[in-house]
Write a structure and sequence with these properties.
The protein has about 110 residues and is α/β, with parallel strands linked by helices. It is built from 4 helices and 5 strands; from the N terminus they run βαβαβαββα. It has a single domain, classed as NAD(P)-binding Rossmann-like Domain (Rossmann fold), CATH 3.40.50.720. It comes from Mycobacterium kansasii.
Length: about 110
């Protein structure tokens, strides 16, 4: 499976959805992991640590979203990400849909 990890875009969210240990485990089991450049900086994890664990690094979020069958995020997508959602893609994240009708509608439209 192609796993993607974009940089979090929600205001004041500095965490990242996977650690290098998680990348190592996924790649050991045959999955491909792509992480957006700088995604781990807020958690003091360098891109080089992800590469050493077997991840590929992509420059832009659009490339991560486009390639991923499974997308890992800490927080729900925000408006600038709604257009990146697509049918058949698995989004693994925490959702607080009661507070965001636009996010709920974007998820429904994406299939």
């Amino acid at each position: 499976m192609r796993v993607g990890v974009p940089t979090e875009t929600k205001n004041n969210e500095f965490r990242v959805a996977i650690t290098p240990a998680g990348v190592r485990e996924l790649t050991r089991r045959g999955h491909q992991v792509t992480i957006q450049a700088g995604a781990g900086e807020g958690s003091s994890i360098a891109d080089a640590d992800y590469v050493a664990a077997g991840a590929q690094v992509a420059d832009a979020a659009e490339g991560v979203w486009a390639a991923a069958e499974l997308l890992l995020k800490v927080k729900e997508p925000i408006e600038i990400e709604y257009g990146l959602l697509r049918r058949g893609q698995i989004l693994f994240t925490y959702l607080h849909l009661a507070a965001s009708l636009p996010c709920t509608e974007a998820l429904l439209r994406s299939g």
